[in-house]
Design brief:
The chain is an alpha/beta fold. 37% of the residues lie in helices and 20% in strands. Strands 4-3-5-11-6 form a five-stranded mixed beta sheet. Strands 8-10-7-9 form a four-stranded mixed beta sheet. A two-stranded antiparallel ribbon has the order 1-2. 28% of the residues are buried. Keywords: DNA-binding, Transcription, Transcription regulation.
C-alpha cells in the first residue's frame, strides 16, 4: 500500500472534535460550520479507511482507532508547530539565545557567566513550568530549558544536573503539619491531588472529590496554584519538588520532607539534532555550575 499524505489541517480538526467530544462545540472552536467539519472528518476517515468516531444520542466518542490517532496526532501537530517556529526563529538575528527556567532552579549566576563568555550574544530568559516545559521546547520559544524529568523519550538531548528531594504539601492545620518529615505511608488515608503515576510509592486509596458544584468529581487540579488552593482547603495533599516549595510559600500550607519518595531529577534539555554551538557551551556551563560536585 502506498504511503498516505496526511493532511495536517484535518488532523487539527480531528483533535478538536476528540477533545470537545462534540462536532458542534468543535466547529464553534474552529470557527467553521458543522457540516464542513463533518466533511473533513469523513474525508480523514476515508484516508485511513477506518471509523474514528462513534456518533449517537449520547454524543461523540472515539473508536479504538480514533484513540490511537489522537495519541499520535498531538505530538505530530506539536512538531509541525515547532517546525514553523524554528524556521521563523532561524530567520531572526543569529546572536539570539533564549533560556527557559522554572521556579526552584536558580539560574541567574549561570546566565551572568554565559553572557560574560559570549558578549556578542543576546541572552533572554523565559519563565515556564513543569506543565509547559515540553511545549516551550517543541514550539521553539526557548533554545534550552531547565526541566524536571521525565521528558518524552526520543525528542530531546538531556543533561542531568542534580536530584531534587520532594515534599508533601499539607494544610497548615492538618495534624501532621507540625512535623518536618513524613513517610509516604503516613499519608495513605489522604487524597492525592495529582496523577498517582507521579508518586508511584503512594499506596493510598482515598480519592479526590472537589466540592465545587457542577464540577466533574473525577477532575484534578492542573496548575501548581490550583493544587495548593485545594491543599489549603483541606481537599488532600500534593507532592512537589522542594525547590518549587521554596518558591510557593504560603501561610496556610506546610511542606514536609518525604523520606521514602524518590527525588525528581533536574536537567537541562534541548531539541535533538540541533547544531547551534551555543547549546553545548551552555550545557557544559550548567553542568559545571549545577551538576554534582566531583569526589
Amino acid at each position: 500500500m502506498p504511503a498516505m499524505d496526511l493532511d495536517i489541517r484535518r488532523l487539527r480538526y480531528f483533535v478538536a472534535v476528540a477533545e470537545e467530544s462534540s462536532f458542534v462545540r468543535a466547529a464553534a472552536r474552529l470557527y467553521m460550520t458543522q457540516p464542513a467539519l463533518s466533511r473533513q472528518i469523513r474525508a480523514l476517515e476515508e484516508d485511513f479507511d477506518v471509523a474514528l468516531f462513534v456518533r449517537d444520542r449520547q454524543g461523540t466518542a472515539l473508536t479504538r482507532a480514533g484513540r490511537q490517532l489522537l495519541e499520535d496526532a498531538r505530538p505530530m501537530l506539536a512538531a509541525a508547530v515547532a517546525l514553523e517556529q524554528r524556521v521563523r526563529t532561524a530567520a531572526r538575528e543569529e546572536n539570539h539565545f533564549t533560556v527557559g527556567f522554572m521556579p526552584g532552579v536558580v539560574v541567574t549566576p549561570i546566565i551572568r557567566e554565559f553572557s560574560r563568555m559570549a558578549p556578542d550574544l543576546r541572552v533572554d530568559v523565559v519563565h515556564t513550568s513543569i506543565t509547559h516545559q515540553v511545549d516551550y521546547l517543541l514550539d521553539g520559544r526557548v533554545d534550552v530549558c531547565y526541566v524536571r524529568l521525565p521528558l518524552p523519550p526520543g525528542m530531546f538531548e538531556v543533561v542531568p544536573l542534580f536530584p531534587e528531594p520532594r515534599v508533601a504539601a499539607l494544610p497548615s492545620e492538618h495534624p501532621l503539619a507540625h512535623r518536618k518529615a513524613v513517610g509516604i505511608d503516613d499519608l495513605r488515608d489522604i487524597p492525592l491531588l495529582q496523577d498517582p503515576r507521579d508518586v508511584p510509592e503512594w499506596r493510598g486509596g482515598a480519592s479526590y472529590s472537589p466540592a465545587a458544584p457542577g464540577r466533574d468529581l473525577s477532575s484534578l487540579p492542573v496548575t501548581i496554584e490550583e493544587c495548593l488552593e485545594a491543599v489549603a482547603s483541606g481537599a488532600g495533599f500534593y507532592v512537589m519538588p522542594s525547590g518549587m516549595a521554596d518558591f510557593y510559600r504560603r501561610r496556610d500550607v506546610e511542606y514536609l520532607t518525604l523520606e521514602d519518595v524518590a527525588p525528581r531529577m533536574v536537567a537541562l534539555a534541548y531539541m535533538e539534532h540541533r547544531t547551534m554551538p551555543e547549546l553545548h557551551k551552555f550545557a557544559d556551563l550548567s553542568r559545571r555550575m549545577l551538576g554534582p560536585v566531583p569526589d
